[in-house]
Structure formats: structure tokens, C-alpha cells
Write a structure and sequence with these properties.
Blueprint lengths: L15 H10 L3 H7 L10 E4 L2 E5 L15 E7 L10 E4 L4 E8 L2 E6 L12 E7 L1
Antiparallel strand pairs: 1-2, 2-6, 3-5, 3-7, 4-5
């Protein structure tokens, strides 16, 4: 059986309920992974930058249990972002948009978004920089 989105062979070597889901939806694991990201694209912890998908964790705990081993990141979002402090919000007069700056030490990489899903998962960040 082939995936209806990418035409790749659907591998059925996961746990039973996942195998049943893949057969039912005629979707491979990779396409299922990205399709499941689409409803959460506006979640305040979702970062999409240059076609790469990230999630901001809740932080806390030892660095080895945080994304990128606790490395600090600066993320500049398009628009008014709920995780940004008021002093970290600014208006880009050249482009007439509000930008929000968020800092985290718990960023988790999800991978490069396949081209076929890019229109459903557009960039919401205009800058992503590792600090230090």
C-alpha cells in the first residue's frame, strides 16, 4: 500500500493502533507526523522558521532534559505573541508589523517540513538565533 500524499510505501512496523491508523488513512508515518502538526500551527509554543518546525518546551529541570541541552535561544515572531513580555514587543515600522521576542532554553527541533506541507505550516518566526 502506498501513501496517498507522497506515494511512498506505507511501512507497518509500529505499534498496532498506529499500524491500523496508517492503513485506515492510507498515509505513511512521515506524512501522518506532519499532518498532525497542522492543527497546532497557531499554538503559542510552535515555532516555524525557514521551513523548520520547533516546539518551545515548558523549561525547568536539568539542562540535559531540555531541548538542545538547555541552550538559550532568541526567537522573533511575526505579530503579537503571548509568550513575549510587553517590553519585548516592538513595531517594525518598515514592514508595519508588530514583532515579539521570546527567549527560551527549552527549544525542541521537529525537523524540516516537507514541501508538500509548507503551505499548511507557514513560517511564524522571522528570526531564530542561538545565544552564547
Amino acid at each position: 500500500m502506498k501513501c496517498r500524499y507522497c506515494d511512498e510505501k506505507i511501512e507497518l512496523h509500529y505499534f498496532p493502533s498506529m499500524n491500523d491508523h496508517l492503513k485506515l488513512t492510507q498515509t505513511c508515518f512521515t506524512c501522518t507526523f506532519w499532518i498532525n502538526k497542522i492543527p497546532n500551527r497557531t499554538n503559542i509554543r510552535t515555532v516555524i522558521y525557514r521551513g523548520e518546525h520547533y516546539n518551545i518546551g515548558k523549561g525547568g529541570g536539568k539542562a540535559e532534559y531540555r531541548g538542545f541541552a538547555g541552550r538559550k535561544w532568541k526567537i522573533v515572531f511575526k505579530g503579537n505573541h503571548n509568550l513575549a513580555d510587553e517590553e519585548d514587543k516592538r513595531r517594525d515600522l518598515e514592514h508595519n508589523i508588530i514583532q515579539s521576542v521570546v527567549y527560551t532554553d527549552d527549544l525542541w527541533g521537529q525537523g524540516k517540513i516537507p514541501e508538500r506541507f509548507r503551505k499548511f505550516l507557514p513560517d511564524n518566526a522571522i528570526e531564530l538565533v542561538a545565544i552564547g
